[in-house]
Automatic annotation (TrEMBL):
Pfam families: DUF308 (PF03729). This is DUF308 domain-containing protein. The chain crosses the membrane at residues 36-56, 63-85, 91-109, 116-137, 149-167, 179-200. Residues 1-11 have a biased composition (Low complexity). GO terms for cellular component: plasma membrane. Residues 1-24 are annotated as: Disordered. Keywords: Membrane, Transmembrane, Transmembrane helix. InterPro entries: Acid_resist_chaperone_HdeD (IPR052712), DUF308_memb (IPR005325).
Amino acid sequence: MTGSRAAARPAGPGPHPGGTARDAPEDVLGRLGGSWTWMLGSALATLVPGILLLVWPDATLHVVAVLFGLYLLVTGAFRFVAVFGQERGDRLPGLLIAVLYVLAGVLCLRNPLQTIAALSVIVGVVWLVSGLLTAYAGLAAKDLPHRGVVLGAALLGIVAGIVVLALPSESAVALTRLLGLWLVLLGVMELAVAFAWRAALRRITH
């Protein structure tokens, strides 16, 4: 799931109100996390594993767990940096999402030979909780551009989590197809959020 931004701000170097250069680590992360290209990278990190799972449905459970663990870790890193692109008061939901993704990724990679049910629970909980947190952030953030797109992505994540938890797969092939399908859908939605964010930044810049 994609995190929300409090308001569209043009990315790029600039002075602080006090006149000092914006070269602090937090400012660097803020410019990076607030850029639409960073959001695009996050969307691709979701879309690519989904495509791999769909074109490789016969992958073993071990491969699926490792691939999904890597997806969760990479996405968690993207989410963590994206937190700094938000206003300070709006960072908590995004930070919780990042931590959730990283912890779930570690669980998948630490025991890749776990059962289908265990993997389904991990993935379902991650998508459900991150979707709820993204929806909360989207509703609470002030001056959020394209709020409908962000809330749509959050809703899709909630539905994906519920489906994975409510419909446990009986085989690795079924689980692979299910996870691949939802990853592709989530990735496409995150692409829409990224391009909507680019449009908002261009309007502010020009």
